[in-house]
Amino acid sequence: MRKNSIKNTRINGEVRKELSEIIRSSIKDPRIHPMTSVTAVEVAPDLKTCRAFISVLGDEEALKQTIDGLKSAEGYIRRELARTVNLRNTPEIRFIPDQSIEYGIRMSKMIDEVKEKDESGHTGEDQAE
To answer: Is the pTM of this model over 0.70?
Structure first.
């Protein structure tokens, strides 16, 4: 896989920004969780396809419902994207669940737990100045 060009990186950022705005303000589907964010977007160099990574603050069921709601609204989202972003082709969007934020939160909690155990196991003499 080749590296993204500067143009492709700019397109990814612009599509991500507009997709977030469309999902946040335009879609009224009750399946879409209010705490939905677009974490990353990868637009193919030929502008035909786009992978949008979606994160939802909630459980697995909320994520599944949100992805289903976004898939059903894909036509509307593409139309709005074509209206707001000036591209030669409006890409076909695939919504992919992204658990990286939840993974990061879980890892952070585990690190905090280990630090807490480590600090409680030490006595005052170990912490010399």
So the answer is: yes
